[in-house]
Request: fold
Amino acid sequence: MGKFALADEALTRIWVCRRCKSRNRAGVEKCRKCGSKYLRVKRKESRVKK
Reply:
């Protein structure tokens, strides 16, 4: 995680739609943009391209 605990906590409260990649509030049942129910929690660790 990063060095700012408050910012890290805010990032973990975001869900991402797997269809349209939009950000949603935690706890929602469907995407705000496309209406899909296929959501995932935002990754906690950053992925580095090699």
